[in-house]
Design goal:
Length: about 110
């Protein structure tokens, strides 16, 4: 599932969509002591059940050399049991993180959440 699918969902006539960005203010360090930053984008509509909403978790390293996103078209498609499980996997599993890297998501970090 790509960004175009999410955009189409947001722009669909049957849904009045809103979005909310939530920056994780917790200091997150991987096994090697490198700091990582995470922000969750919640896309919701009045008529959209919670489990049917898209799920997006953006991340970057402190050096701003790695940018990526974990996306699911529906929240219910997310196989990870909780937030900390997926954050830990992104930080500490290089192979997994490499599949999520997306340099185009760098522009997400131009926002000011702090």
């Amino acid at each position: 599932m790509g960004l175009e699918t999410i955009k189409a969902f947001i722009e669909s006539d049957r849904m009045k969509m809103c979005e909310m960005w939530t920056y994780d203010k917790e200091k997150r360090l991987d096994r090697k002591g490198r700091r990582w930053h995470f922000v969750h984008r919640d896309i919701h509509g009045v008529e959209t059940p919670y489990e049917e909403r898209p799920y997006e978790l953006y991340f970057r390293n402190d050096e701003k050399t790695a940018f990526g996103v974990l996306r699911f078209q529906h929240r219910k498609d997310n196989p990870y049991r909780d937030y900390m499980t997926v954050v830990t996997k992104i930080m500490n599993n290089d192979d997994f993180r490499m599949t999520l890297l997306d340099p185009e998501t760098e522009n997400v970090w131009n926002r000011n959440w702090k």
